Amino acid sequence: MAVDRRPLIAGNWKMNLDHLQAIAFTQKLAWTLRDARHDYATTEVAVIPPFTDLRSIQNLVEGDKFDLVYGGQDLSAHDAGAYTGEISGAFLRALGSTYVIIGHSERRQYHAETDDVVRAKVATAIRNDLTPIVCVGETEADLAQFGPSSLPVAQLRAAIDGLSPAEIVVAYEPVWAIGTGKAATEDQAQQVCAALRSALTETWGLDSGDATRILYGGSVTSSNISALMRQPDVDGALVGGASLDVIEFSSICRFLKHAV
Ligand code: PEP
User: Fold this and answer.
1) Is residue 156 part of a domain?
2) Residue 68 lies in a domain
């Protein structure tokens, strides 16, 4: 974690919590962080719920003036039109979204999202004033075949190929660590996040390389967050399972308070 990059802790709820559950959960999260005097200027906190929760979360966040931000788990590569079931970047922005996850390994695996699709979605997000959280990461087989960083770096290069420098967040999520309870070690996370930053610097220049936040994701908990966040190129976490537990997630958000 570098002092001039504000850490981001983002909770990816995946397909969990309907809009009523989302209201209760978000209220409890915001109040837990408020009671603990969480300083959002020091660590940004985002929730990334299913699309159907976004309007409820917007009403809550705006009505109660919570400092939480939120976003979508995906978006269409198209801006509007005959694309049944798709959600446009403009719709996400109109609901006050800050972020949108793009290229999550579950999208790549179950929805056949290729690097070209990911790149088109990154361009669409930027065009619609959303900050993409671009997910990259290798499977166990990739790791054995290519080593730790080459596949995530290739995915990142492909995701921004031909695009002008813009604000993005990169999430390094080794597929073998997602939902397995087997997180990467802090050294593994640092090694790949540093390689991703070098690739960004080569493609978009030093300013982008320095400014872009690179998150680690994959079985993050309140027990391993501090060690991960001590690494110079890890600027936050994309949290899956643990983001569905208010106490655990708020403890992850407050990693600075329990850093040892
Ligand atoms: C994820 O799916 O983005 C993720 C990091 O999941 P988990 O934290 O459950 O491993």
Assistant:
1) yes
2) yes
Determine whether the shortest distance from the Cβ of 72 to ligand 1 is under 6 A. Answer: no
Kindly state if the Cβ of 239 falls inside 6 Å of ligand 1: yes
Q: What ligand 1 atom has the least distance to the C-alpha of 104?
A: 3
Q: Closest Cα to residue 134, out of 171, 160, 164?
A: 171
Q: Is residue 3 part of a domain?
A: no
* 244 CA to centre of ligand 1 in angstroms: 11
Helix (H) or strand (E) holding 239: strand 236-239
Task: Return the CA Rg of the chain.
Answer: 17
Model confidence, pTM: 0.97
What average pLDDT does the structure give for the chain?
A: 96
With tokens 């995530």, the residue in question is 152
Poorest-pLDDT segment among 2-6, 117-121, 125-129, 185-189: 2-6
* Domain that includes residue 74, residue range: 8-258
Q: What does the pLDDT look like over 142-183, one tens digit per residue?
A: 999 999 999 999 999 999 999 999 999 999 999 999 999 999
- Ligand 1 mutation pick, 47, 215, 234, 238, max ligand atoms within 8 A of CB: 238
pLDDT digit string (tens) for 20-64?
999 999 999 999 999 999 999 999 999 999 999 999 999 999 999
Nearest to 71 by CA among 104, 113, 105: 104
